[in-house]
Write the structure tokens for this entry.
Amino acid sequence: MNRKVLIFFLLFFTSLNVFTQNYSNEWISYSQNYYKIPISKTGIYRITETELENFGVPTGSFNPQNLQIFHNGKEIPLFIDGEALGLINFIEFFAEKNSGWLDTTLFNSTQSQTNPYYSLINDTAAYFLTWNNSFNNLRYENENDTNFDDYELSQYCKKTILTQYTSKYYYGETDCEYTKAEGWFDNTAISLGNTIKKSIETPNAISSGTNATIKFALASFSSYQHHIKVDNEGFSFDTTFSGLTHIIKSFSFSSSLIENTTTINFQSINDLDQRTDYSAVSYVEIIYPHTYDFEGQNEFYFTLPHNPNAKTLIEITNFDIDDSNIILYDITNNKRIAAVNDNDTIKAVINKSNLDINCVIINEKSINQLSKMSKLTFVDYSKNQSDYVIISHPKLSDKAVDYKNYRNAELVFIDDLYNQFSYGINKHPIAIKNFANYIINTWDSIPKNLLLLGKSISAQYYRKDSLNYVNTLVPSFGEPTSDVLLTAGLNGTYYEPAIPTGRISAKSSDDVDLYLNKVFEYENNEPEIWMKNILHFGGGKTSSEQNLFASYLDNYKKIIEDTLFGGRVSTFLKNSSDPIQITQTDSIKSLINNGCSLLTFFGHAAASGFDQNIDEPSAYDNKGKYPFLFANSCYSGNIHLPNSESTSEKWVLIKDKGVIGFIAVVFEGYTTYLNQYSQQFYKNISYQNYGKNIGKCMQITAQNIEQGNLNNAGIKSTCLEMTLHGDPALKFYAPPLPDLSVSQSSINFSPSTVSSQLDTFNINIEISNIGKAFVDTFIVSLTRTFSNGITETNNYTLFGSLYKDTLKIKLPIDKIKGAGNNKFDIYVDAMNQIEELNENNNQTSVNLFIKSNEIIPIYPFQYSIVPTDSIILKASSGYPFSSEQDFIFEIDTTNNFNSSFKSNKIIKHKGGVVEWELPFSLTPNTVYFWRVSKYYENPDSMSWKTSSFIYIDGKTGWSQSKFSQFQNDDFNLIKKNNSEEKFEFITTPKNLHCHNIGSPNTDTQFRDIEYTIDGAGDYSSCGAAEAIIVVVIDSLTLKPWESDKAMYGHRDYPKCFSRSRTDKYFVFSTDSVSLSKLAIMLEDSIPNGDYVLVYTFRNGNFYNWENDLYSAFINLGAAYVRN
């Protein structure tokens, strides 16, 4: 496309490279009213008072002298007809359409912009009408000098012809920032060995005037050596250069060489032994002396050479007057000049000037009328501050407000940002960057999250497409397009966002609604073990590449399966050379449907999918269980495409399915740098920045890998392109504490059927850690309750828990009491050594019925009281389906079964309940002992099971009234004296152990400092500061006092700040005040006879000890404490 612009003003009137570190809103007075005027054509504009009122401007509320119009942050001059009389007959002003002046801020250097005259965004500039209380606002001054005979006649003016070639977009270097050789250029390339000619109309040149100048810009689009020659009759330029860059040159030559058409030759010379060469022209600008023949036009732009000494007369011919008034403006000096039509020759006097004077002449009928003006209300964002900022589009406003309310965020609409931070230029991404810079520097604290809520389309796709332009709701930045660039470089950053940033590429309110619902589900899930599941997918074209990617993924697996995350990784690897391998196994579907926190791909991809295709997100059923997807591949993260739906958008913007966030680069990914990023990202989410927002982890990851690599293009592109499609405030699953869990379903026995014919069996206890992984030891307690009520308890020490561990315990059958139902009570972290999220899921019970040919008493119940003197004894075989066999019953009044009263009975019976009706009447208030066994000829082979009861007429209940009935009881601090049939107190020693470390300096060493009483106690301290730790042990119970007993001046009252439980010690700081309180505690608070253990933590700082503390220790019996 060839764009010929027969005007000069873009060169003379637009200030290039004006972007500085301001915010672009400095010109706004928030107390004033503003009306926005869009301008897409350069020219003189006029608006009447009636038209102003039709646009809603209250013209009767201000004096015309108060009126102002601003453009690009600066006040422009106005001409108001009738102003001196307090009237607004009409307002006239000169306005320019948008150019590339503001785009300079988007390039990696102000020198990188090839074409400053053509905007990458749009052609429409914005002018803002307002009014204040001043009577000295900027105005055009009338020049009414018509004494034409008094001044010397000008012989020529200067004319600027700017021809732009903007048919095709060229990408330049693969860098997110706009670079040299990037932008819109000629569709016809200057190919190797060929010449293209650009012919430009240059009529009415005058040879006697000043020299002409030609300025051109071109850029190369191949990475090889280039030999370019540019020439015409007036100049010749010959150069060689290499790579992707641009050339901008200007040449002066005699105006006598200017003809009605000026032709410039652009030639690629094939003498560098290159296979290819491509370049393209951006623009050609010709400035030449021009007669005052204005070519029959009704609007003409020209420049008058400066004359600092005297006014100048000009006489214009061949101008289309069209029977209307002639208006002439000196734009340089803000003059409105009287022009007189003298027989179709227009005469005017131009005031003297030290500068060349840019002028425009127009007939009144050709003045432009304003078609649109809209009222604005500027928001003072200094008064609306939040940790979370949402930038959205009015199209999404209803659901954007819901999102704002959910996050308690500051909601900002993009149209407001355009008007305030990019001078009203719509779709310009610098609005977001300036706004971000503003809030970073002016708010009390930098926001923690920035959410871009709305679809973005790359500028190259919407610059010339009106539908794509409309569908761009919240624009982004650069090519390849990068959301990171919207804040990168601010506040001392480099390739990381200054505010952690994410985008939801919503095209409609429905998209916002479905995603917000997913966020709500995600953030309200209770911790479950599936949240520690990770899926890895490795691709690659060749076996060596597949092996490389597999090694990368294995490294990530080692990181995330260790502390602090403690995940479980399932890996699926591509094993064919096909471009795409379909992976649709039921196992993958099951894993995703059952829940996982992260899907990580490393392989090749396009915008539509991966080289290991695991099906569309619609094929899964994972409502409420939404993982993040981390794609180390090309293109899959490109959410800035206009027509096609990217892989990222498919997975994120699907209702009740898919993922909660998608992390990937938008363009080509480079294996080495993707691996560097991924490895550091895994470290950050797994332990280095565990628990921080996903956006923050991405920000820190970029900071990590860019250190020492700021000149590495691969690192730069990886960091800038890495896009978060999702909410940056979301957290990767990171519970703050461990959470050990055990349940009935996690316990099994081997073999599955256990009988008394075995010697041993295994109980397998699967212990899950739903929470934070840890490496500290903890106790698992197993209590076995036999069918006769006797219990046995054993403790087992485990060393940390990452994800799941199975504790396998081998147990004896116990031929005597093992048969029948065995109840197992499992208590994980039985000593409460580990502070957990939930202490209520550490215990469970399971039953195991051990089959046996043995028989056990079941009625009367052990120690029961029977109310009648006749009774049937009942016993149950261990296996109800056993064949018929002999059983023997015995009953006696002594537990030795050796009195003359003893009776017995052999009964033949199948398995099940066996009965014997006693052949005698019971004696009141008499204890009877009875037993049963399978019958054997050899009495020594009998396996007796014994029970007892008492007969009390008319009574029921429980009774242990005979000494021998206590034989199977457990005793605490007493023992039985069988010979005298009495109980006696016993002395049972307990083992007190204390382990200390001199000058510990690691967390592990802190935890190794502990004391125990028979294996149970407490460890470490409260905080890392030096301390004296005091343990008080009750003399009766031999249990330690806990830190909430009373306030003695210890720093862990009622509990330590870092724990949810109380401590089993008292931690005193080593300053003089705390040590004085320790002395008082030792003297006044510990009862006589209690035991006291004292040890230091890190350093006792004994130089701080006063005599009162030494005396307290000596009074307790520590006679050598001063030594």
Remarks:
- The radius of gyration is 45 Å.
